[in-house]
Amino acid sequence: MRILVVEDEPDVAAFVRKALVEENHAVDVAHDGAKGEYLALTEPYDLIILDIMLPIKDGLTVLKSLRAEKISTPVPMLTARGEVPDRVAGLDAGADDYLVKPFAVAELRARVRSLLRRQSGDRSPLLKAGDLTLNTVNHEARIKDELVELTTREYAILEYLLRNKNRLLSKGMIAEHVWDFHFSSDYNLIEVYIRRLRKKIESKIQKKIIHTIRNSGYIIRDSEK
Amino acid sequence: MKYSIRTRLTLSITFVFLFIFFFILVAGAIALYLGLNEEIDRDLRIEEKRMSELFALEFQDLLTEKGENRKSLRDKLVEELNEIYRYKRQFVIFPLESNTGRRIYAGGELKNVQLLLPKGFLALKDGYYNQRFDSNLYRLLIIRKEWGTLLLGARNQAFFEVADEFKEIFLIGIPLVIMLVILGGRFLARQAMRPVVSAAEAAEKITLTDLGQRLSDYDKKDEFGILVTTLNKMIIRLERGINRIQQFTQDAAHELRTPLTILRGELELLYQQDDLSEQIQASLQKTLDRTISLNKIVEDLMLLAQSDSGHYKLDKSTFRLDQVIQETVEDVKILAENRPIGVNLIYCDQVNFFGDEQLIRRLLLNLSDNALKYTEKGHIEFSLKVQNNAVEIKIKDTGIGIPEENFPHIFDRFYRVEKGRTSSDKGSGLGLSICKWIVEAHDGAIDIASEEGKGTTVIIIFPLILRNN
Lengths: 225, 469
Fold this sequence. Notes:
The complex is a heterodimer.
Chain A: E1 2-6, H1 10-22, E2 26-30, H2 33-42, E3 47-51, H3 59-68, E4 76-80, H4 84-92, E5 97-101, H5 105-119, E6 126-129, E7 132-135, E8 140-143, E9 146-148, H6 152-163, E10 169-170, H7 171-179, H8 188-205, E11 210-213, E12 217-220
Parallel strand pairs in A: 1-2, 1-3, 3-4, 4-5
Antiparallel strand pairs in A: 6-7, 7-8, 8-9, 10-12, 11-12
Chain B: H1 5-64, H2 67-85, E1 91-97, E2 102-103, E3 127-133, E4 136-145, E5 148-155, H3 158-205, H4 223-271, H5 278-308, E6 316-320, H6 321-335, E7 341-348, E8 352-356, H7 357-373, E9 378-387, E10 390-397, H8 431-441, E11 445-451, E12 455-463
Parallel strand pairs in B: 7-9
Antiparallel strand pairs in B: 1-2, 1-5, 3-4, 4-5, 6-8, 9-10, 10-12, 11-12
């Protein structure tokens, strides 16, 4: 897929580009609003990642002019945290999603994946890994067809792991995503939840799904390597 | 300050007025007294002229004649003088026979005039003298002529007349004047203070978050005009200062955010690579997770900075507070799993709460994290109660407590109770300041009771706003 990244900070643009290239996308980068707008109007992109604070032309203006030109490419916007009006303004201007800076690469990849999937017409709310299926609409987890009862937290962790299938997630990343809080007690909490998830899922699949990598992170793999 | 400016102004005005009033009275009295004295002197002088003429004519004969002739001459003169001074009783005239001091005549009210004479008056120069006699004051005029010395005296009533004159003014006038001056002073003081009172009222309305306002509607170029202008200039400077701080905070946060985003992104990309050595991956994980923590601290600072400037917008919605508490308690139970701590939700009413759910979760996690950090054994109890249109959340632990001397500071930024704390805890010291802010942003109140060695109880009360959607 072709993706345009409009971000004035070269280093941010660089790692976003790297993260997307790793997912086998073709990525163009524009460092200001005007250039971004020009590229978006002239080239066919599948997705445009747009920063709000941009030199020459800000992200919201660029987005408005794209939508006025009937370009309906999905646009996730990058915004500063806590600034609710920004976020609302972005969504009002026609953004499809927003990411709060500093964002996690895992989060970015998951959002991009989901937007591209929607774009391609695949509107299935299901996340899958082997026999495990997670319905992101009604928050149900099933193994084959059997329902697995999950608590809110267990579901949140499982969904995060599945959205980042085949990617390693550290305990810190999980804690940040699920609790938005930094516990002082060394992620004991996450270990407990992972243990519970394993008990609930792997006992039914008879197979390891959530892998622990050197006691520092977790990963869900589609198949055994 | 014991008295208001208005009272003090009234007192000052009263004192000044009274002083002026006294001054005028005393000056008037002195002027009157001097005037009366001058009048006496003038009368004495006129009398002296008349006497001199009289004696110049008849006294010479009296001195030269002898025997019967002299006696009849003298009687004639005395009769003449008596005739003149019948109605001028206050005058005492005694021309003296030659310069030997022998008296020829004394008239007026005092026959025994010898007593009136100043000691050694013969040696005195010509002129006016004051003399006291029989509790009366006399004004004397001594004039020397070739035929002898002329001494004229008049009772000096000036002082008593003045005193009489002013007695009434003092008795009636002073209380009246004091009353009038106090009333007038109060009125003047009120008039004078009015612009100040209105300026103070206007200033009251100007708060840190609303510095756009100015003290207005006083555009006269007087002292208060200057004060108001000065205050307005100060407010403008204050506003600029605050704006600069806000701008700085925003800029600083932006400057921190960008490198943090990059740091995080790059670390994450590296960490997620498959072909890393164990050592590198472990080190990357530690760096990444610490970067995430660092990020949280920056966000907390941002949050506090924004809350200070009133720029933080709460993302309010209606949610089930009891569920949030239950989830938190569930987390705390897990965190306390391998420790001798019992975690209980002892009471939980069902509550639909209107507020910023993210922030309320933060609040509860922060407080729970503290309770866990400082409790070795015993229990942590949570409760959620609804009573009288208020929600009360209570978190009670049997931890090490907070020493009393630390109490005034526990809500201060970056403040940490060091005593008895293990070195392993890693708080930023922002936790409780953020808790306090979150509670206050929801119009609530937070109170912490603690006894060292026994435990800590945190009580939060929120007003319950009922929303119909």
